[in-house]
Amino acid sequence: MDNPVSMPGGVSGGPLETERQARELPAVRAVWAAWDRDPGVGKMTPLNLAMLEGACEAAGLEVGAYDRRILAWLAGFEPQTCAVVAGLITRANVGRAR
User: Fold this and answer.
1) What are phi and psi of 48, to 5 degrees?
2) 3 vs 13, 14, 72, CA distance in Å?
3) Packing angle of the helix pair 45-58, 26-37 (nearest 10 deg)
4) What's the rounded Cα separation, in Å, for the pair 44 and 79?
5) What is the pLDDT of residues 43-94, one digit of tens each?
6) Which of 29, 34, 61, 93 has the highest local Cβ count within 10 Å?
């Protein structure tokens, strides 16, 4: 990963080259660790959603109702997938600030 971008929740903005790199991110490992302590369907969703919402908030994005609906849908995926999306949001914001 060249020039990783630090994100809220310990997510690096990448660029990520492999799923393995995404799985090794601290925020992703934290979600999996929480799930290991208390497994179950949908138990990762709130943590994934916090990761996505944190990236949007840090980027200063105004999020509408439909945006929130899509973020909630994305939060149902694996945490490494959510970390990639959060990283893209963060990198786009960093690029915009330059």
Assistant:
1) -65, -40
2) 9, 7, 29
3) 160
4) 7
5) 999 999 999 999 999 999 999 999 999 999 999 999 999 999 999 999 888 7
6) 93
CB-based contact 85:70 (threshold 8 Å): no
- Could you identify the residue written with the tokens 């990283």? 87
State the Cα–Cα distance between residues 78 and 73, nearest whole angstrom: 11
Looking at this protein, which amino acid is placed at residue 6?
Answer: S
Q: What is the pTM of this model?
A: 0.84
Q: How far is CA 79 from the centre of its chain?
A: 7
Between CA 60 and CA 45 the distance in angstroms is 22
Q: At what angle do helices 26-37 and 79-97 cross, to 10 degrees?
A: 150
